Amino acid sequence: MGDWPRIKSTILDSVGDTPMIWLRHVGAERGARIALKLEAMNPGGSIKDRIAVALIRDAEQSGRLLPGGTIVEATAGNTGIALAMAAAVLGYRALFVVPNKMSPDKIAILKAYGAEVQVVPDLPREDPDNYQNIAQRLAENLVGGCYMGQFERQANPKAHYASTGPEIWRDANGQLRAVVAGAGTGGTITGIGQYLKSQDPNVLVIGADPEGSILSGGSYHAFKIEGMGEDYYPETLDRSVVDRWIPISDQVAFAMARRLAREEGLLVGGSTGAIVAAAKIVANELASDELVVALAPDTGRNYLSNIFTTEKGG
Ligand code: PMP
């Protein structure tokens, strides 16, 4: 038998350790420099690859998910893609409930991995037919079904405390003034915020939030940015770790996503556009020798049909 230590046993072994890249053209006009942590470099194309295996292991260990079972989840897409990839490797079926504002590109990817998809109207969290409530009911009524619960399970923020946060701290050489992330479940901002503050309590944790989401304090109205912004506070969001929320419009977010592709060669999604726009506001207020890290949750390939083929987008 040969010896091939660098060959990975499955695609799941290549999740994480994503690169951080300086913004050279679309960053702040003055003030701090901005580096973007590119989560699109994960094999499923998003930050959610990091939580998929953690959620599955959590469900297996608590006896909720049994061999040959079906993973059921409510997802705006990326968690579904990550879970579908992991399900294919680990031998589970996968069934996803997605809101109808989700891009057709992401739905096609879920199906490509062999998952089943139900598209439902985008209704408020308290509505019995909200996508999370439908997914939960489906799991309860399905033999071998297991609701993964990314909005409730602490395995979600813990995965970011264990991997995303330490990677940022390492690549920033411990010299970091602020980190900017979005919040959908809040898992990312909670996990990285808690970890970075445990290393340096002075690190500013900034939440970029779509205009229309309640997290930044406004009243709810619909918005087009996918994957972040909420009409309620998820259990996986620790609001005490966020120093400041910055609301960003769909139009500003999508225009920034297009600039990132054309001026930096970074094909990223609309939520990244919002996060970079918020990072610019923060960086403008800081000194030129300081570092702001912005988290780019996913790839622009998820949004070819709704952000990158129209000039106006938002
Ligand atoms: N942006 C996109 C595109 C996402 O899919 C998600 C995950 N819902 C987020 C941002 C926010 O991440 P989190 O759920 O960890 O708050």
Task: Briefly characterize the structure.
This protein is α/β, with parallel strands linked by helices. It has 2 domains: 11-42 and 163-303, Rossmann fold; 49-147, Rossmann fold (3-Layer(aba) Sandwich). The protein is built from 8 helices and 10 strands.
Structural write-up:
This protein is of the alpha/beta class and 314 residues long. It has 2 domains: 11-42 and 163-303, Rossmann fold (3-Layer(aba) Sandwich), CATH 3.40.50; 49-147, Rossmann fold (3-Layer(aba) Sandwich), CATH 3.40.50. It has helices at 49-61, 78-90, 104-112, 131-141, 155-171, 187-199, 250-264, 270-284; strands spanning 20-22, 33-38, 70-74, 93-99, 116-120, 145-147, 178-182, 204-210, 244-248, 291-296. The strands form 2 sheets. Strands 1-2-10-7-8-9 form a 6-stranded mixed β-sheet. It has a 4-stranded parallel β-sheet with strand order 5-4-3-6, sandwiched between helices. The longest helix is centred in the middle third of the chain and has 17 residues, at 155-171. The chain starts with 19 loop residues before the first strand and ends in an 18-residue tail after the last strand. The chain binds 4'-deoxy-4'-aminopyridoxal-5'-phosphate.
